[in-house]
């Protein structure tokens, strides 16, 4: 188990991201198998070693690669975070990391988007303590693509922060829709997330 918080109960964020490599991204994680459910990556310095268990196959494939500036591992390392590759599905990599706060989420996502074709925020969870106990979770996978787009942008840009410095109008311009349309989309998405959260609580 990965320890992500101290014994003093420090809270951190677990972030789950789906990333699609660019055409120039020569990563052994993807080149060894288009579908894998067990991936181990050991990146040290400018070299990484990858072990991949392809889906539906026996045996493990091993490969080495060069850690370049646009590598997944290098981007996370720049911010002092460790990426954990959970699976590969048709070339899309699901990666989990533990970050200090929402600023950390924004920084990592922005840096990844500079070099990868697609970066999608799938899930955010507040964790605390040495056992990484989840205290609150936002699962964006239940939303429609348009709802997820709006919520992801709002979260990443800090729209929901108490001291937010981005307006609804600015977000709407980025999405390319009206303020009222984005407001409705966010309200609907928030209602869906809250409903799902309460349905998961035992009465």
Describe the structure.
32% of the residues lie in helices and 33% in strands. With 203 residues, it is α+β, with helices and mostly antiparallel strands. It has two domains: 1-131, no CATH class; 143-203, Arc Repressor Mutant, subunit A. The protein has an eight-stranded antiparallel beta sheet with strand order 4-3-2-5-6-1-7-8. Helix 4 packs across helix 6 (179-199) and helix 5 (168-175) packs across helix 6 (179-199).
Helix percentage: 25-40%
* Lateral arrangement of strands in the main beta sheet: 4-3-2-5-6-1-7-8
What is the chain-wise order of helices and strands? EHEEEHEEHEEHHH
The biggest sheet amounts to: 8 strands, antiparallel
Shape: globular
Task: Give the low-confidence spans.
Answer: 1-9
Please tell me how large the radius of gyration is: 18 Å
Number of helices: 6
The overall strand count is 8
Topology at a glance:
Blueprint: E1 11-20, H1 28-31, E2 35-44, E3 47-54, E4 61-66, H2 72-78, E5 84-89, E6 92-99, H3 102-113, E7 118-128, E8 133-139, H4 145-156, H5 168-175, H6 179-199
Antiparallel strand pairs: 1-6, 1-7, 2-3, 2-5, 3-4, 5-6, 7-8
Tell me briefly what this model is.
This protein is of the alpha+beta class and 203 residues long. The chain folds into two domains: 1-131, no CATH class; 143-203, Arc Repressor Mutant, subunit A (Orthogonal Bundle). The protein is built from six helices and eight strands.
């Amino acid at each position: 188990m990965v320890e992500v918080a101290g014994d003093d109960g420090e809270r951190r964020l677990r972030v789950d991201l789906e990333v699609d490599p660019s055409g120039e991204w020569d990563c052994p994680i993807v080149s060894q198998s288009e579908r894998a459910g067990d991936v181990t990556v050991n990146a040290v310095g400018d070299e990484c070693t990858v072990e991949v268990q392809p889906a539906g196959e026996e045996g493990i494939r091993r490969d080495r690669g060069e850690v370049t500036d646009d590598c997944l591992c290098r981007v996370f390392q720049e911010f002092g975070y460790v990426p954990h590759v959970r699976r590969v599905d048709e070339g899309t990599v699901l990666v989990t990391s533990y970050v200090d706060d929402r600023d950390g989420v924004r920084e990592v996502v922005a840096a990844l988007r500079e070099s990868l074709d697609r970066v999608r925020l799938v899930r955010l969870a507040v964790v605390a303590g040495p056992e990484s106990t989840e205290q609150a979770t936002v699962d964006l996978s239940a939303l429609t693509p348009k709802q997820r787009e709006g919520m992801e942008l709002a979260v990443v840009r800090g729209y929901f922060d108490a001291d937010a410095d981005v307006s609804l109008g600015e977000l709407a311009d980025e999405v390319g829709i009206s303020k009222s349309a984005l407001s409705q989309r966010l309200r609907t998405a928030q209602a869906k997330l809250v409903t799902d959260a309460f349905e998961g609580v035992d009465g």
